[in-house]
Amino acid sequence: PSDVIHSVAAVGDTLYFGCGQLGTEGYLAAYDLANGRCSVLASTLRASPETPLDSLAGGFRLRSIVPDTPRNRLLLVVDHGDLATATGLWEFRPDQKTFRQIRQMDRPAHSIDVDASGKLWVYPLCRNAYRPIREKDGWYGAVEFNPETDAARLVFASKNKGAGPDLPVRTDTRIFPALHHAGALVAEGWLYHFASVVVNGTEGLELRRVSLATREIQILDAGLFLGNVYYLGRMHWLPNRKTLLVGDGDRIVALKVGS
Q1: What's the sign of the alpha-carbon dihedral 195, 184, 169, 134?
Q2: DSSP character string of 74-110
Q3: I want to staple 167 with a disulfide (CB 3.0 to 4.6 A). Which of 1, 149, 163, 250 is the partner?
Q4: What's the CA dihedral at 15, 16, 22, 27 to 10 degrees?
Q5: pLDDT tens, 189-232?
Q6: pLDDT under 70 in the chain at which residues?
């Protein structure tokens, strides 16, 4: 239905993908690798909406598609814009062709990750610039979602503000005001994030980590990042190797991290 691809996930012989021109349309489609057939599961261009996603004006973006094989479903991270009721975490059940919103989020996700235990981490954000609804100094957070129970909680945020109607700041939510709104990742009790610095007159970003238990801050030896971290900055944790992959569009660093 579109060559503008948002996200892709494979389940058996089926390739699921989110696509559609940003700001005008949105689709969830499935491609059968065995017979070469493509079927549209959700489309904002249908004359008569058949699913909850079909009726989203201006289209939508699927930030991520995560297979939840034990429960025979796909987890969809939907971006319909700031403070839009459809923005958040959804499920799609291929056997029933049904959609259900699990959690509404006030802000779209910047990145998504699955940890070693199978929990889904969703990192919503609002950057003060380039947003129709301003958030002074921006906002960044991390939501932990347990697919076994559908329970979710706000683990950290850059200010004392929740991530959605049923994702409030809790007593165990950590507030870290100094976060750079470009990317972060939680792994094994640490929050890894970029921090703005000036080194010998050069502005850039260094890599830090904060203990969620003690709030101890450590600067990691990954060099100075000078690329466009907001758009191209990514982090990925390799649990078996205790290694953090960090990129900024210009370079990728593999950092062996101790406990």
Answers
A1: positive
A2: EEEEEE--TT-TT-EEEEEETTTTEEEEEEE-SS-EE
A3: 163
A4: 120
A5: 898 988 888 889 988 889 999 898 888 989 999 999 998 887 78
A6: 128-134, 178, 180-182, 259
So what's the pLDDT on residue 131? 53
Look-up: residue for tokens 């996200």? 7
Average pLDDT for the chain: 90
Those residues whose C-beta lies under 8 Å from the C-beta of residue 181, and which sit 6 or more positions away, are 110, 125, 126, 127, 138, 139, 140, 158, 230
- Which tokens is 10 given? 């494979």
Rounded Cα distance between 8 and 215, Å, is 36
Q: And the tokens for 200?
A: 């010998």
Instruction: Report whether 139 contacts 83 (CB < 8 A).
Output: no
Q: What local confidence, expressed as pLDDT, does residue 32 receive? A: 97
- Within 8 A by CB and 6+ apart from 11, the residues are 67, 69, 74, 94
The secondary structure of 15-60 as a DSSP string is: EEEEE--TTT--EEEEEETTTTEEEEEEETT-SS--SGGGG-TT--
Q: Is the separation of the CB atoms in 155 and 163 below 8 Å?
A: no
The two beta strands, 252-256 and 190-199, are unpaired
What residues pair up with 67 in beta bridges, in sequence order? 74
29: region left, alpha or beta (phi > 0 left; psi from -120 to 50 alpha): beta
Encoding tokens for residue 77?
A: 């991270």
Check residue 158 and give its pLDDT: 87
pTM of the model: 0.89
